[in-house]
Specification:
Length: 294
C-alpha cells in the first residue's frame, strides 16, 4: 500500500508542477502524504508510530536528512520527525526511500486519526503497569487508512501511557489511555483509564482485552464516525463552551489566565464550520484513495 501511495503521489506532483492540478486540487493530496507548503520551504512530517525506531530506520532518516535536507531533522512532541527544507521535486524520492525502511508520512497531517503515541520509556519504565506498545500497534493498524476516520472535521489524536507518570501527555489528546489496575473478584486486573476530549469528561476504565482490532475500547467516547454525519455533537460542544465562557467571565478572554477559553472556543466552533464547509466535501470527492481490506 505504501509503495502504491508513493507512485500515486509522484504522478500527482508531476501533474501539479505541469500546471494540470491547481493548488486547491493538490492541497488534499499532499496533506495525505504529510507535506506542508510553508513560507520558506516545504515541510515533510514522517510518522514514527509510538516512538519506536529500528537502527535501520534511523540510518534511513539520517541519509534522507543529509541528501535532501540540511543534515538534521526535528523530532516532534507527538513522536514524528519533520524535515523542514526538502525541495518539492524531491519529495517523491524521499517517500520512496522511507518505504524501503518500512516508514511513511501517511496520516501525519490533515483531518484524520494521527500518529498514535506512547511512553518514550515504554518497556523499561520503573513504574510501568503495562507495556503500551502492543496496544498502540493495535490502534495503529486499526486506524491506518481507515475509510471512516480519514476525513474527519478535525484531526484526532490518541496516546497510551503505560505508567501513571503520564509521559505522553494523554490529557492533551482527544483520547488518552493511562494504564491502571483494579481488583475484580479478589484478583488484580490491568486496564486503562480513558480520558476523552482532553480530560473534559470523567475517565472510564476498560480492560486491555477490549483493545482488539475492532477497537471496542474507543466506543466509550463520542464516536468519530458520527461527526461527519451529524453536527449535533459539535453543537453541544459549542453550547458547553459558551456556558463555560459566561461562568469564567473576563478572565476567559486572557491568554495567560488559567481560565482562558480561547483555544476551547476556537476548537468548538472550528469543527462545526468544517463539517458544513462545501470545500471540505468538494476536496473529498477528488481524492484518490488507497484501498484497504477491513
Amino acid at each position: 500500500i505504501v509503495a502504491d501511495r508513493v507512485r500515486q503521489y509522484r504522478d500527482q506532483l508531476a501533474r501539479f508542477l505541469a500546471g494540470r492540478l491547481s493548488e486547491d486540487e493538490f492541497r488534499p493530496l499532499r496533506l495525505q502524504n504529510g507535506l506542508y507548503i510553508q513560507r520558506h520551504a516545504p515541510m515533510l512530517r514522517v510518522a514514527i508510530p509510538y516512538g519506536l525506531l529500528s537502527s535501520r530506520q534511523l540510518h534511513g532518516l539520517a541519509s534522507i536528512a543529509r541528501r535532501y535536507d540540511r543534515g538534521y531533522g526535528h523530532f516532534t512532541t507527538r513522536q514524528n520527525i519533520q524535515f523542514n527544507w526538502p525541495a518539492l521535486k524531491d519529495t517523491p524520492d524521499i517517500l520512496a526511500e522511507l518505504a524501503t525502511v518500512q516508514m511513511h508520512a501517511i496520516q501525519t497531517s490533515g483531518n484524520c486519526v494521527r500518529n498514535v503515541t506512547a511512553d518514550h520509556f515504554a518497556g523499561v519504565a520503573h513504574d510501568e503497569i503495562a507495556d503500551p506498545r502492543p496496544y498502540a500497534e493495535i490502534l495503529r493498524q486499526w486506524s491506518s487508512l481507515h475509510p471512516e476516520f480519514s476525513f474527519l472535521p478535525r484531526k484526532f489524536k490518541i496516546s497510551i501511557a503505560g505508567c501513571k507518570s503520564w509521559c505522553p501527555y494523554p490529557e492533551i489528546n482527544d483520547v488518552g489511555l493511562t494504564a491502571t489496575t483494579r481488583v475484580v473478584n479478589g484478583a488484580a486486573e490491568v486496564g486503562f483509564f480513558i480520558a476523552r476530549c482532553g480530560r473534559a469528561s470523567p475517565p472510564s476504565l476498560t480492560s486491555p482485552r477490549s483493545l482488539t482490532p475492532s477497537c471496542t475500547g474507543i466506543r466509550c467516547c463520542p464516536s468519530c464516525r458520527e461527526w461527519p454525519k451529524s453536527s449535533a455533537i459539535l453543537k453541544c460542544c459549542v453550547s458547553i463552551a459558551s456556558a463555560a465562557l459566561e461562568v469564567c467571565g473576563i478572565m476567559a478572554y486572557k491568554q495567560d489566565s488559567p481560565f482562558s477559553m480561547l483555544r476551547i472556543i476556537r476548537d468548538a466552533h472550528g469543527g462545526l464550520v468544517m463539517v458544513s464547509n462545501d470545500r471540505y466535501l468538494h476536496d473529498n470527492a477528488q481524492l484518490l484513495l488507497a484501498t484497504k481490506t477491513l
